[in-house]
Recover the amino acids of this structure.
């Protein structure tokens, strides 16, 4: 049986994101991750004709009949043309895209990634995210997730809005100065997507007890910079089976990851990911601690936006079950001063004191629905 025979009578339409163009004697079908270079000139005309024909929903048998009967393409060439257009999500279900739907543009992105948009959106609507930190990165990550249709967001932050925040914490305004960040962010998110259930908590996570007291979530996203918070969250999530992701900036480097899926991926303790004061030289350790104690991060809006966007995309990929999160088993960084991509591998270590022996929570695995 032909690999596409099982769906031959399912009408499909050319995806709206498919464009065609010719450059340097090569015809390109689609652009971005789905770009396909067509150098065989015999395919050009029938392929474009078939793409045009699929602007109206067609079954495979109807499309093949169009090629052979209306375009006069012989059998083997017609098969080659069909297979070319059937690759890489060029054709989607006739009901996948409704331009009037709130999430219609995201639906196209999910189809582009090879997923069924309605299933992705359903998963997102049922997902719960716990966000620790509502500052420069937290503002933008929260907005991206809430407006994408994530079902529930819990926002946690102990700070109040300050004048110096407004250069990068874009959901806050001058009128919000001195108000609790979590409450203001919740208010602004509700104004943007009333279907997302928003809970705000003005407080600080300082120990295991305060972390355990927070609401249940399918994913914990850490964008706060409190000392020791990543270690605390990692220990909690490895034990509880919660997925978690850290995102931040290191001066002018936008950083996100690793995406930790307990029992499946490496965790924060599997590898040494950050430089720390030495433990075997007390005097040097004390001096370094004093120097580092005066550190003030040079936070910048565009760098925050970059880290936030890439982290949010990985969260949506994981919760929605489409594509492959870039931060699986690695911590990623974009060095904005030279536009270089860096990564720290975080494969699971059998000797890790935190996650060795931890088994995967099947119900939380990405794609296991």
């Amino acid at each position: 049986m032909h690999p596409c025979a099982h769906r031959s009578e399912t009408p499909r339409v050319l995806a709206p994101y498919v464009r065609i163009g010719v450059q340097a004697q090569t015809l390109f079908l689609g652009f971005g991750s789905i770009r396909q270079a067509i150098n065989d000139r015999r395919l050009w005309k029938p392929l474009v004709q078939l793409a045009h024909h699929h602007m109206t929903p067609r079954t495979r048998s109807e499309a093949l009949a169009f090629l052979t009967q209306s375009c006069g393409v012989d059998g083997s060439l017609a098969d080659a043309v069909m297979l070319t257009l059937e690759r890489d999500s060029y054709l989607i279900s006739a009901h996948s895209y409704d331009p009037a739907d709130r999430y219609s543009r995201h639906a196209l992105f999910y189809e582009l990634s090879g997923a069924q948009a309605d299933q992705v959106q359903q998963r997102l609507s049922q997902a719960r995210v716990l966000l620790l930190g509502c500052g420069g990165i937290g503002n933008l990550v929260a907005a991206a997730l809430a407006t994408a249709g994530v079902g529930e967001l819990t926002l946690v932050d102990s700070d109040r809005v300050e004048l110096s925040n407004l250069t990068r914490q874009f959901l806050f305004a001058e009128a919000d100065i001195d108000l609790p960040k979590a409450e203001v962010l919740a208010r602004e998110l509700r104004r943007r997507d009333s279907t997302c259930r928003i809970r705000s908590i003005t407080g600080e996570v300082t120990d295991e007890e305060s972390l355990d007291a927070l609401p249940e979530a399918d994913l914990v996203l850490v964008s706060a910079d409190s000392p020791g918070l990543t270690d605390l969250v990692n220990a909690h999530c490895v034990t509880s089976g919660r997925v978690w992701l850290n995102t931040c900036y290191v001066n002018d480097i936008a950083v996100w990851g690793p995406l930790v899926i307990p029992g499946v991926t490496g965790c924060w303790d599997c590898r040494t990911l950050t430089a720390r004061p030495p433990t075997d030289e007390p005097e040097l350790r004390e001096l370094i601690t004093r120097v580092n104690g005066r550190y003030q991060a040079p936070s910048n809006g565009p760098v925050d936006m970059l880290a936030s966007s890439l982290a949010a995309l990985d969260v949506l990929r994981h919760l929605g079950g489409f594509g492959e999160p870039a931060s699986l088993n690695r911590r990623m960084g974009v060095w904005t001063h030279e536009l270089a991509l860096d990564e720290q591998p975080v494969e699971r270590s059998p000797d890790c004191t935190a996650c060795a022996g931890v088994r995967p929570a099947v119900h939380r695995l990405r794609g296991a629905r």
Remarks:
- The domain at 127-364 is CATH 3.40.50.720 (Rossmann fold).
- The CA atoms of residues 104 and 145 lie 15 Å apart.
- Confidence is low (pLDDT under 50) at residues 1-6, 363-369.
